[in-house]
From TrEMBL:
Tagged with keyword Transcription: yes
Ranges of residues in domain HTH merR-type: 11-79
Source organism of the structure: Ureibacillus acetophenoni
SMART domains hit by this protein: HTH_MERR (SM00422)
Superkingdom classification of source: Bacteria
Protein's UniProt name: MerR family glutamine synthetase transcriptional repressor
Molecular function as annotated in GO: DNA binding; DNA-binding transcription factor activity
InterPro entries hit by this protein: DNA-bd_dom_put_sf (IPR009061), MerR-type_HTH_dom (IPR000551), MerR_fam (IPR047057)
Amino acid sequence: MSPEDRRTMPLLPLSMVMQLTELTARQIRYYEEHNLIEPVRSEGNRRMFTLDDVDSLLEIRELLDEGINMAGIKKVFAMKSNCVTNSNIATISYAKFRSILRDEIQQVITVQKTSLRQGDLSG
């Protein structure tokens, strides 16, 4: 079994994912409703999560902590998905992608602070 197969194998119940991610069941269901994760349902209709799902939830939590709203998170996930599925785009590492995203967020924050300061000076 390849490492990728292991990452996509639904192994973890909701209770374990809650402990690993420090998210509530409601938060996890909310992200599922927004198609940010897609847990598999067991025969008893219980959600079973993959390691990739846990990584996505941790990334969502981190992006929220950085001040990005749900619309922004959806765009980030869409960009990631497009980078993976579009073979015409140069492949970059996940770490590089995160670095680029952090730089862009920092630029937006800096511009917002600058414009707020300029507004205070002109008033």
